[in-house]
Amino acid sequence: MKNVQQAMGDFFQRLKKDGYNPDNISPALHTVEKIVRLEQLRRHILTCTDCALCERAEGRVPGTGHTRTPLMVVGEGPGEDEEDWGLPLVGISGSLLTLILSKAGIHREDIYLTNVVKCRVSDEKGKNRTPVREETIACSKYLKMELELIRPRVVIALGKVAQQFFFPEQKTMGPHRGNVYDFEGIKVVPTWHPAYVIRQRGDDLLKAKKEVWHDIKVAVHTLQELLKA
Ligand code: SF4
């Protein structure tokens, strides 16, 4: 397969020779390179067998969305619907997330969504379970590559698995959710996973809804301030 970086270098020389302005060529080639690299990453994930999760998983679920977005949402891993449809955050919790984001003025099509783990994590009875550390470590290389390629300004980390990908020293979600943390120059706001909100009832449900709404508004406000600066 052609080396992407080398190909972009060749394209640059060719277009320059044909009289195009180098200042315009570079950003165009940068965009093309990013699209190619994300597609290569997607194909790689789709055939990955790097950990035991691939034995039970019926498909891999790479990230998806806008490639020039300043906002990325990172969840834990695909559930049954996500595995079926091959897309992250499209089940009931993804639908709730889409609803909350749209209330905050964020259109889902304008952002990038992904998970820490790209295969469904289930137990022997086929029920979702939390990935163990070895599984998140095996798969987190893909999220690192997505972060490098998309380079978001703000990340919303949904749930403890996503939170601990960025900040392994944070052992619980409660004291940290809704705060803005720095991860290699990216602002990260942890919040409850929508699946957690859906599981709540009564006063706990009201509290979780209020907290997630607060945290999403913090993330959106942080992004707006960064884009203004
Ligand atoms: S969970 Fe990640 S590392 Fe493990 S097989 Fe699936 S894609 Fe590969």
Secondary-structure topology with pairs:
Layout lengths: L3 H14 L4 H25 L6 H4 L7 E2 L5 E5 L4 H6 L6 H12 L8 E4 L17 H18 L3 E5 H8 L14 E3 L2 E6 L2 H6 L2 H27 L1
Parallel strand pairs: 2-3, 2-4, 4-6
Antiparallel strand pairs: 1-3, 5-6
Bound molecules: iron/sulfur cluster.
Iron/sulfur cluster (SF4) binds next to helix 3 and helix 6.
How many angstroms does the end-to-end distance come to? Answer: 41 Å
Strand content: 5-15%
Name of the CATH architecture of the largest domain = 3-Layer(aba) Sandwich
Going across the biggest sheet, name each strand in turn: 1-3-2-4-6-5
Principal-axis shape = globular
- According to DSSP, the number of beta strands is 6
CATH superfamily of the largest domain: Uracil-DNA glycosylase-like domain
User: How helix-rich are the residues, as a percent range?
Assistant: 40-55%
Text of the CATH class of the largest domain: Alpha Beta
Main beta sheet, described?
A: 6 strands, mixed
**Mean pLDDT metric:** 95
Number of domains: 2
Structural class: alpha/beta
What order do the SSEs take from the amino end to the carboxyl end, as H and E? HHHEEHHEHEHEEHH
